[in-house]
């Protein structure tokens, strides 16, 4: 514990970097994943095809390569301020995680009986109304556990950004080593921090499940 008390600024910066990567990447993943999931179940063939290509292409690409693209290729295509590796890493994590979010939402949508959507369309409701009023409220209950697993994986994946000069809990070991601190102790402390963060996410999952559970 002395490592934490002796270097509070370093640990604070590392934890803050991890939180920014997680929250920023998670927000991008939720928005983009929802859009892609809607495309995957859309009645428009082109939309379904684009959604399928995106999911299969990005999801089957290693996260390291995705971050490589954002760190070294995106600045060549778009005018990005120097030193914006944190922003680029957030975007990379969001784009990568969005594929898993999309498939989780799509799986939840598939749990809703097709007859309900057909009955809604027979009443004159459009695709957007069917999704927002009939399908998604029911699908939400079934996607909470797998969705939380996706975000736990995102939290762990934030450490990959350490290889791209982004300060987070994934690279504090190297900093502590340079200061002559025991690396084993640092690794154990980082593990404890991640366990605490995962337990917080698990508590959030339990609260969401209680709120959305079906009363029988």
From TrEMBL:
All residue ranges annotated as the ABC transmembrane type-1 domain in the record: 15-205
Protein's cellular compartments: Cell membrane
Record field: transmembrane: 15-39, 60-78, 84-102, 122-139, 151-172, 184-204
PROSITE patterns in the cross-refs: ABC_TM1 (PS50928)
Keywords: Amino-acid transport, Cell membrane, Membrane, Transmembrane, Transmembrane helix, Transport
Membrane topology: Multi-pass membrane protein
Alphabetized InterPro entries for the sequence: AA_ABC_transptr_permease_3TM, ArtM/GltK/GlnP/TcyL/YhdX-like, MetI-like, MetI-like_sf
Gene3D superfamilies: MetI-like (1.10.3720.10)
NCBIfam families, per the entry: HEQRo_perm_3TM
Family designation: Belongs to the binding-protein-dependent transport system permease family. HisMQ subfamily.
PANTHER family with a match to the protein in the record: AMINO-ACID ABC TRANSPORTER PERMEASE PROTEIN YHDX-RELATED (PTHR30614:SF37), MEMBRANE COMPONENT OF AMINO ACID ABC TRANSPORTER (PTHR30614)
Record's protein name: Amino acid ABC transporter permease
């Amino acid at each position: 514990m002395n490592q934490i008390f002796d270097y509070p600024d370093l640990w604070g910066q590392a934890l803050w970097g991890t939180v920014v990567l997680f929250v920023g990447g998670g927000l991008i993943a939720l928005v983009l994943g929802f859009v892609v999931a809607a495309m995957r179940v859309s009645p428009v063939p082109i939309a379904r095809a684009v959604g399928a290509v995106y999911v299969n292409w990005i999801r089957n690409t290693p996260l390291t390569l995705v971050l490589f693209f954002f760190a070294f290729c995106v600045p060549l295509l778009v005018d990005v301020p120097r030193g914006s590796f944190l922003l680029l890493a957030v975007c990379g994590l969001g784009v990568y995680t969005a594929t898993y979010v999309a498939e989780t939402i799509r799986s939840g949508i598939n749990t809703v009986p097709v007859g309900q959507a057909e009955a809604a369309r027979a009443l004159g409701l459009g695709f957007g109304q069917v999704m927002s009023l009939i399908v998604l409220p029911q699908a939400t209950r079934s996607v909470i556990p797998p969705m939380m697993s996706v975000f736990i994986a995102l939290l762990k994946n934030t450490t990959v950004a350490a290889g791209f000069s982004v300060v987070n809990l994934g690279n504090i070991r190297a900093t502590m080593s340079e200061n002559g601190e025991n690396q084993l102790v640092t690794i154990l402390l980082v593990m404890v921090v991640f366990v605490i963060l995962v337990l917080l996410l698990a508590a959030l999952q339990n609260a969401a499940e209680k709120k959305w559970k079906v009363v029988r």
